[in-house]
Design a protein that fits this description.
Length: about 400
């Protein structure tokens, strides 16, 4: 397969070698990552009441006209539950692997350990506009915000889609964000070149949205861990899939451009945990990221947001007294009690790794501004490499 790498680390592949057939997920390809079983959808929406909505913004073609297009961008939102998030906040934590990012809302999550808005992912320069739309949504559902009660803390994560998108145009508008929130559902999550993932590049190929889940069987807990990633990081020769150095076999490496990408990882669980336990889970997502070959480079913004959707640990905006009756996972206790938190750690690592692989496998080729092309990962040679390494399991 004739390939080369351009000055920004994006793979160039002859057009006849690009597979434009329907794109499989990892398990549809015969690739089974890890040992913990997935949920029914193998998605973040396997976590009860978690919902995902996406709006893709894609129009125009040809030469870049800064501020005027072409647009290859979008927004993806994750709702920790289907109720009023401002009124029923969820425990949350954020872990920064490398802080080359422009996220919003991190400080209050770190301080109070809760999230009170939908979590939005988008293009770097759209963070302000998306945050403003989340404020609009919060006021729409809670008209007392800022008048008789506190203000709302919007949480927005970002990655740069500048290679394919007119990033200066900030083409994600309030209506796109509100549409994604209003359409958010708990069903199948579209992956790849969709929503915030429309303009993303990962390991030199087309990246974007990916998701996966793991279910921890009783008696350990019976909980679910779901992951959603916005993958926009890595260099071609670094790519590892299920322990196989696919990137080294797939591309001819001529030079080492700097790492300029990012990844946002959202960890959801119905295990009843507060910010301390969730922060520990968020750190383990970094292990799953490392399994795919990432080194969290200097120019990469790698940030993990973790939350619990468990009704037992939701924090009411106005408590009825000085204390709250809550039940949480025991991280320390009698012999064997560590099995529960260890199982959550393992589930987080495996689901993060698989979500990133799904983002790559599901992403379709996208032609963006100035004719820049984000090429889909070529399936046939990847399958051959993985099969030769004994990673493909036939039904």
């Amino acid at each position: 397969m004739p390939v080369s790498i351009d000055e920004v680390g994006v793979v160039k592949v002859d057009s006849e070698d690009i597979d434009e057939q329907p794109r499989p997920r990892a398990r549809e390809l015969g690739l089974i990552i890890g040992v913990v079983p997935p949920g029914n959808l193998n998605a973040i929406t396997d976590v009860p009441d978690v919902r995902v909505g996406q709006t893709t913004v894609a129009w125009g073609e040809g030469a870049l006209r800064p501020g005027h297009g072409p647009a290859r961008t979008g927004v993806t939102v994750v709702l920790p539950h289907g109720g009023n998030l401002f009124r029923e906040k969820v425990p949350a934590a954020i872990h920064v692997l490398n802080g080359f990012g422009k996220c919003m809302g991190i400080e209050q999550v770190e301080e109070l350990g809760t999230i009170e808005s939908p979590i939005a992912l988008t293009s770097t320069l759209c963070v302000g506009r998306v945050a403003d739309a989340l404020v609009t949504h919060g006021i729409r559902d809670n008209p007392e915000i800022g008048i008789t009660t506190s203000t709302v803390n919007p949480v927005v994560g970002e990655c740069s889609d500048a290679f394919l998108n007119d990033i200066q145009g900030r083409h994600v508008r309030e209506e796109h964000v509100l549409a994604a929130i209003d359409a958010a559902s708990g069903g199948t999550v579209e992956e790849g070149s969709v929503g915030a993932g429309m303009g993303m590049i990962a390991f030199g190929f087309k990246g974007g949205i990916g998701t996966a889940s793991r279910v921890i069987a009783p008696p350990v807990g019976g909980w679910t861990v779901g992951i959603l990633v916005l993958a926009n990081f890595g260099l071609p020769h670094q790519l590892v899939i299920d322990g196989v150095p696919v990137g080294r076999d797939l591309v001819r490496r001529h030079h080492h451009p700097p790492e300029r990408g990012s990844i946002m990882i959202i960890v959801a669980t119905d295990a009843p945990l507060f910010d301390h336990g969730l922060r520990r889970m968020a750190r383990r997502a970094g292990f799953g990221l490392a399994r795919t070959g990432s080194m969290s480079g200097h120019g990469s913004g790698d940030i993990v947001i973790a939350f619990s959707s468990a009704p037992a640990v939701r924090i009411p905006h106005a408590a009825g007294g000085l204390t709250l009756p809550l039940e949480v996972v025991a991280e320390q206790g009698p012999p064997g009690s560590a099995r529960a938190i260890d199982a959550l750690f393992a589930a987080t690592i495996e689901a993060t790794e698989e979500a990133i692989v799904n983002a790559l496998l599901r992403a379709t080729t996208v032609v963006g501004r100035d004719g820049n092309v984000g090429r889909a990962l070529p399936l046939e040679p990847v399958w051959q490499i993985l099969n030769a390494a004994g990673r493909i399991r036939r039904p």
